[in-house]
Predict the structure.
Amino acid sequence: MPGNPRKRLEKLEQQMAEIARRESAANCNCRTHTLAAAAEYFAAEMNQTCPVHGFRRLGKIMVFNVKIVGKNGDVEERSQGVPELVEEYERRLARHRQQILEEDDSEEL
Ligand SMILES: [Zn+2]
C-alpha cells in the first residue's frame, strides 16, 4: 500500500525545514558557475564536498582553453585533461541524482 499523502507531506515539510536549518547553520560552498581552465585546479574543485549538500554542485561549467607559450616556443596546454574531468564530474552528478531517486523509492516500500 502506498504511503498516505498526509504523512508524505509532513515528511517533506520536515525535510525542507531540515535543509533550511542546515543551510543557515553551515556554509554551502556550491557554485552556480565554475571556470575550468587548469586541470589541477578543476580537479581540486570537483573533489570538494559541500558541508550542506554533501555533493558539491559546480553549476554551469565553462571550459577555457589555456595555453602558455614558453620562450623557446614550447606550448604548455594548461587545460589538458579538463574535458575528461568535466565528464567525470557529470557522471558523479548523474550518479548522485540517481542515488537520491533510489533513496526516495526505498522509503516508499
Ligand atoms: Zn551546497
User: Anything to note?
Assistant: Residues 28-108 form one domain. The pocket of zinc ion is lined by residues 28, 30, 50, 52-53 (CB under 6 Å). The chain has three helices and six strands.
